[in-house]
């Protein structure tokens, strides 16, 4: 075995070891759904094996005409937390289950944390103005995979889906060796073999005028764009080059397996002493009471840390608490007094009772109240006005969520769930804080996981089986953070029809709060992404002038 490894090493040395990456992107499957306004709703599926690095990134340049927003990531079905002001130099642990946008001055990078081993990452985002009006066509001309990938895909597939009939379109691709075809109403650009770092994927599609309701207009015709795309486009590699790439891929996969096996016993080092792992959700025991002293803000830090809570859902939980405590009131604007959540601004929040900040329980609620009061008009807060204010003040919201995590951690320290230590370091004996988790915290967190499973499994519970009515309002606040409050409210109606009817206004208001909370965070996400995209630059020359083209690369780093 030792001699075999030596032979492999020498072979790689003479072939050019720099061409082999220990990380392998087995496949990248990109699907683009074009809506009626010409915006592209993108889903990328990254099947990748990783044994080094801290993040995956995808760079975009030449973004003057485009905006990317609604960026989110999940790994093996677990949703990531969106971070404002992404730090590419942060540690792998700090990036775990987090994603964000990195402003690179001449464009932007979509970044997200990684886990070692082979995993499936699902990336979603929207490209606004993906299709634009030209003189004789409506044209999509965009680079979906950048040049200089650190880990170019072994297989790449781009699928463009639209409701427009495809019998009169023109389409082509540039920058890689591909098989292009239309199948089942989809335009497909598919690599014929492993890709190389100097390749890229630019798609050009011409639709008949009037296919979409387009706002963005450009000069020129399809032929001029196609001619521009051809200039400087990378020619197809010959079969020998493809074979060499395939051989190098096989060797790279072999090395990856060797390295992964070698490091398989290396353990993740937590930022916290006495950290613990939770059982898999399907193996967790149901817990029917409410842990952490029935205080969702006390549980917020560890709920985020262990990925039981959705970080951005804190707003909805606070609103539900205020609704229960009569700090806010939901008021329909139509004369019949009936909420219609399909209509825009059919209701508003009366925030009059939030003016006395001293009546609120903590500084997080006080700051949230200040923001709602500023966003309101004469103490009336509509989803539209709230969304508008959020777009201009998204940094305050991200700071609030960060402060909520710190506040929660401090409260856990004060109540004995976490032990805080101070250590000296450096020649000048500077001090830093370290935190140690306790058995008390572990026990309550396991119960928190059990409550989440209990609420998820409510459809399987026997009718009215010892479910205490007085816990339902607490359930709803925690369920909002779990991300399943609407499901819990529907089950409450099933189990306690009479009590539901008596409190119908409260439970119906849940859906309004759910809508307002979602529209609020969507506005925050869109604004932060737009801010990062606003500094996009341009590249001159040939096929490299398409939207999204970047020499900044992508992959694992």
Helical stretch count? 14
Q: Main sheet, how many strands, which sense, barrel? A: 8 strands, mixed
Strands of the widest sheet, in order across it, are 5-4-9-2-1-12-15-14
The CATH architecture category of the largest domain equals Orthogonal Bundle
The geometry reads as: globular
CATH topology of the largest domain: yeast vps74-n-term truncation variant fold
Average of pLDDT: 79
Question: How big a fraction of the residues is strand?
Answer: 15-25%
The CATH first-level class of the largest domain comes to Mainly Alpha
Count all strands and give the number. 22
Q: Low-confidence parts lasting 5 or more residues at pLDDT below 50?
A: 2-21, 234-247, 259-268, 339-344, 525-544
End-to-end separation in angstroms reads 31 Å
The Cα radius of gyration reads 27 Å
Domain count: the total is 2
> Percentage of helical residues?
25-40%
Structural class: alpha+beta
How would you characterize this protein structure?
The protein is an alpha+beta fold and 557 residues long. It has 14 helices and 22 strands. The strands form 5 sheets. Strands 5-4-9-2-1-12-15-14 form an 8-stranded mixed sheet. It has a 5-stranded mixed sheet with strand order 6-7-8-3-22. It has a 4-stranded antiparallel sheet with strand order 10-11-16-13, covered by helices on one side. The longest helix is centred in the C-terminal third of the chain and has 30 residues, at 504-533.
